[in-house]
Write a structure and sequence with these properties.
This protein has 740 residues and is α/β, with parallel strands linked by helices. The protein folds into four domains: 27-164, Recoverin, domain 1 (Orthogonal Bundle), CATH 1.10.238; 188-199 and 552-645 and 685-737, 3-Layer(aba) Sandwich (Rossmann fold); 216-446; 451-548, Translation factors (Elongation Factor Tu (Ef-tu), domain 3, Beta Barrel). It is built from 28 helices and 15 strands. The strands form four sheets. A six-stranded parallel β-sheet has the order 13-12-11-10-14-15. Residues 448-554 form the FAD-binding FR-type domain.
């Protein structure tokens, strides 16, 4: 916990000493911009907020009747703050001169309250009336040593300097990480860290991608081999005289389609993948984290195969058959058509061609609705199309493949120019994957039927986030980083949606956080909103299926963890942090730190960087953050950092007062004023280069796993930094991305 203020008689020098001993803050970004709104509109908004009635859980900036500053004074003050928007903290004296109502160089409580009000609204922060009063009193007690009822502007400037002079790259959470490893049973000081030379870019690329490369290379070689085999086979048959190279091309593509229609089912056999993932020797060779990506790659191979197979048949083979010389037709392929040369239309009406066309249409519908924009109901699409898109449409349309596989078997029975049963090998390719996938679906249906869960607690947060705390079924075991599927029969008995578990493996309950990003999540939120209002007397019935492994489950492979989450993307990492903190507690209790370290079981340190643009987002995981912070306080194995991007960077005049209040309040109470947890909140975006530099210096020679969940634009930046610092330092960074 931050050091408490022990005396109110200390002045500038004691303040500097105090702040140098408290957790430091982030200098996340040096850039800032002026407010887009006008001064008058800003003031009107602050009055609107202050005049709203106080409701349970609601935030207001201040009550209007207690603001003794005139509107013109406020507009003048705010206009000046906008003018010097990116200015340094040294210009704060000018700001206070403008905001000082009496223009006498003395800042009263009323002046401070009004400035807090203006600063909070400028940075899109919400404060209660009590918080404004407390922060004002905190500043007055810290500076007004003689109880004059006012403070000098010079004193305020000294307070600013004392606070901001202690700002460094990142602030350890509470004193959870102040020692950065002192008395830490998992710390690297107990382990021998082998210093290695920096890796070349080629080595980094090979280390990161060799699993993907050999799998994809094997798949490509298999497709090329099958295509070549059938191409050569049909090039030497009599039909080649009629259709030329179109025939072997179509048949070669057909053979790759058989393989790909079998392989595409394997990456979605979730139970099998989760079971295989737990076998380290198999998991070392096969990149299970990329199963969905491989599923998409195979789908691309199917599209290419369909174009080659169907296109050459329709545009080349069939016209040549119907228009070929009769004598050549009789000498070559007449027996395959009952010695009747068909017209183009007659060929299209045959069972094999008709079934093939229907398959292509069904696959086209399923593939189109599985693409990114239709699946997520993108606003880029026309309104008429948005009504028939979304996850529900994607889910139901994918079940068209039940018909596709049935037609595929039917299609293979009437193969064009193939009479030998052994050559009708489609069933040989697909029988095992189809049986495996069918068995998985049956197993999931039976298991989920026994996993009806009782709702212990349901909480609704801003941003339409639903937190569900559920009873843990007997025998339900999982590891941190796993996820489950939820089904609500009241909405649909067929829809299952994945959510990361935010409870720890040692907890006696299961918890998930659901944000309304689609139609199903919107409806489930609405159902529980009604249930919460009724006192949870009639909760919707829920079934769960799982658990299933994910990329985050690989955190046990690394010495150090770096967990980066944007917004709701922090959910996969809450369970991991709980697990790491709990493991450290158990290790210390059993006095087994040296043993655990020598066996390299689990990470010795975990860093969380949570970035959000809305202050209310901190409500989502407030209880979990407090729990993790308290449990990890003595072990110093968890270091958490919150970043609020709506606030101007530290050092910007528009957030200067917030920095002062934040440091004073954390030093006295150990609670951050923004997140209202022990975790320090940094302003603006993180400086990732500085963060990676610090990690590389602190953990030289260590293997650091960087796990990210969020939009892909930041993923590219983090991946580049992992490569850069792995090639220029002795620290090994490995990047993992959760599907978002």
């Amino acid at each position: 916990m931050g050091r408490h203020l022990k005396s109110q008689k200390a002045h500038d020098h004691s303040l500097i000493a105090l702040f140098n001993s408290t957790p430091s803050s982030s200098s996340s970004s040096s850039s800032s911009s002026s407010l887009s709104s006008s001064s008058s509109s800003w003031y009107a908004e602050s009055i609107r907020l202050s005049s709203n009635p106080v409701q349970t859980g609601s935030k207001v900036s201040h009550e209007a009747e207690q603001a003794e500053v005139t509107e013109n004074d406020s507009i003048q003050c705010m206009g000046f703050m906008n003018d010097i928007g990116g200015g340094s903290i040294m210009e704060w004296k000018d700001v206070e001169n403008r905001c000082n109502r009496n223009m006498d160089g003395k800042i009263t409580e009323t002046d401070i309250k009004q400035t807090i009000l203006l600063t909070a609204s400028t940075n899109k922060l919400s404060l209660t009336h009590e918080e404004v009063e407390d922060y004002t009193a905190l500043i007055m007690k810290s500076v007004d040593i003689k109880n004059n009822g006012y403070i000098e502007i010079s004193q305020m400037e000294s307070l600013m300097k004392a606070t901001l002079s202690s700002k460094t790259l990142l602030s350890p959470t509470k004193q959870v990480s102040a020692a950065l490893g002192k008395n830490n049973v998992h710390n690297n000081e107990f382990c021998e860290v082998v210093e290695e030379e920096p890796m070349s870019k080629a080595e980094v690329m090979f280390r990161n991608y060799w699993r993907r490369c050999w799998i994809v290379l094997l798949w490509v070689v298999a497709c090329i081999g099958l295509f070549t085999w059938k191409f050569v086979q049909y090039k030497n048959r009599s039909g080649f005289e009629v259709m030329g190279y179109c025939l072997p091309t179509a048949k070669g593509a057909a053979e790759t389609l058989k393989l790909n229609m079998a392989l595409i089912l394997l990456p979605v056999c979730r139970n099998t993948i989760t079971w295989l993932r737990n076998h380290r020797s198999i998991g070392y060779l096969i990149p299970f984290n990329d199963s969905i990506n491989f599923h998409k790659v195979i789908a691309g191979g199917i599209v290419v195969g369909v174009i080659l197979h169907g296109g050459t048949h329709l545009a080349c083979d069939f016209p040549r058959i119907s228009e070929s010389d009769r004598s050549i037709f009789r000498q070559t392929i007449a027996a395959d058509f009952g010695y009747h040369q068909p017209t183009y239309v007659e060929i299209l009406l045959t069972p094999e061609v008709g079934s093939g066309i229907v398959m292509v249409v069904l696959m086209g519908i399923a593939f189109s609705l599985a693409s990114k924009w239709p699946r997520r109901g993108s606003p880029v699409l026309p309104v008429s199309l948005r009504r028939v898109t979304g996850y529900d449409t994607f889910w139901y349309s994918h079940h068209l493949f039940v018909l596709v596989y049935a037609l595929l078997i039917f299609h293979s029975v009437f193969l064009f120019l193939t009479k030998n049963w052994l050559e009708k090998s489609t069933w040989m390719y697909i029988i095992f994957p189809v049986l495996l996938y069918t068995g998985e679906r049956i197993f999931r249906a039976v298991r989920s039927g026994s996993y009806e869960v009782d709702i212990l607690k349901a909480s609704l947060y801003s941003g339409k986030v639903l937190h569900l705390k559920m009873q843990k079924p007997e025998g339900f075991n999982y590891r941190s980083g796993m996820y489950i599927f939820l089904q609500c029969p009241q909405l649909s008995p067929f829809q299952w949606h994945p959510f990361s578990l935010t409870s720890g493996p040692q907890d006696d309950y299961l918890s998930v956080h659901i944000r309304t990003l689609g139609d199903w999540s919107y409806h489930i939120y609405s159902l529980f909103q009604e249930a919460v209002l009724s006192g949870l007397q009639e909760c919707p019935k829920l079934y769960i299926d799982g658990p299933y492994g994910s990329a985050a489950q690989d955190h046990v492979k690394y010495d150090i963890l770096v967990l980066v989450g944007l917004g709701i993307g922090a959910t996969p990492f809450i369970s991991i942090l709980k697990d790491v903190a709990k493991g450290a507690q158990i290790a210390q209790r059993d006095n087994s730190g040296l043993r655990e370290c020598s066996l390299t079981k689990g990470p010795s340190k975990a860093y969380l960087y949570w970035i959000t643009r809305d202050q209310n987002s901190f409500d989502w995981f407030r209880d979990a953050m407090k729990e993790i912070s308290n449990s990890a306080e003595k072990q110093s194995v968890v270091e958490m950092h919150n970043f609020l991007t709506s606030v101007y960077p530290e050092g910007d005049v528009r957030s200067a007062l917030l920095s002062v209040i934040q440091s004073l309040h954390h030093a006295k109470n150990g609670i951050d004023i923004v997140s209202r947890t022990p975790i320090h909140t940094h302003f603006a975006r993180p400086n990732w280069f500085n963060i990676f530099s610090r990690l590389a210096r602190k953990h030289g020679g260590a293997k650091i796993g960087v796990f990210y969940c969020g939009p892909s634009n930041l993923a590219r930046e983090l991946m580049k930094l992992c490569t850069k610092f792995s090639t220029t330092t002795t620290t090994r960074f490995s990047f993992h991305k959760e599907n978002y």
